[in-house]
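User: Please predict the structure of the protein below. I'd like the answer in structure-token form so I can feed it into my own downstream comparison script.

Assistant: Understood. Taking the following sequence of 287 residues as input:
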Amino acid sequence: MQAIRSILVVIEPEHSESLALKRAKLIAGVTQAHLHLLVCDRKHDHGGMLGVLKAALLEDGYSVTTEQAWNESLHETIIEVQQAEGCGLVIKQHFPDSPLKKALLTPADWKLLRHCPTPVLLVKTANPWKDGVVLAAIDVGNTDLEHRHLHATIIDYGYDIASLAKARLHVISAHPSPMLSSADPTFQLSETIEARYREQCRAFQAEFEIEDDRLHIEEGPADVLIPFMAHKLHAAVTVIGTVARSGLSGALIGNTAEVVLDSLESDVLVLKPREIEDHLEEMVSHH
């Protein structure tokens, strides 16, 4: 996170108290990143409001620029500006449509998460990060290279957020129940899986220096366990990664992430492996 030189903050004019901006200030206050405030609107001019925000931020010692833009759709506008400005992080607040759909992300949010080449922080709550819990969700059982890189990225970001918010980092790894796992009968024995998994966890713990009481190994589906653990720990922010399963342009974010993101009662930082970021960047530049 220290490497992020510039943050794109999506400002929604009709919501005066911008939680996205609040998070951006917390991060930039520590990393000295530049803030680029963006209003996505084709119809109305928001220059006055952006001017007021900019003046206040400059007075507080932040480096800041502002922009109003519109291109086809919300997510395309955000990504186009992210590319043009070279922002390494996008922060956007999630606004629930109605109490009924409170948790459910909007299609625009989903498209942003799928197509944005950089990490995206979706702000879902007003809970302060300071002195809170940061929950990093990983899948220790997957040891292929792509996953290992992604795990390292997730843990790095988790530690970074924890240190800048003076929060505590916890890590959850959900692993499938024995009957769901492997076709190989030896791995269907609960003890074998458990033992092998614990071993992988120990190696993981040693590599990333995670204490026992901060590592939560749970058996069962990730889409249930991650929101459950976030709720139990009162996590302020959950860091999760997405790995492409069926062709990069298709379902970049699998069903697990969709369910997890909708049911999490915390802010969510969504990360992608380097290869996917590069691929998305390429696709964006060919448009």
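That's the full token string. The two ends are 28 Å apart (CA to CA).
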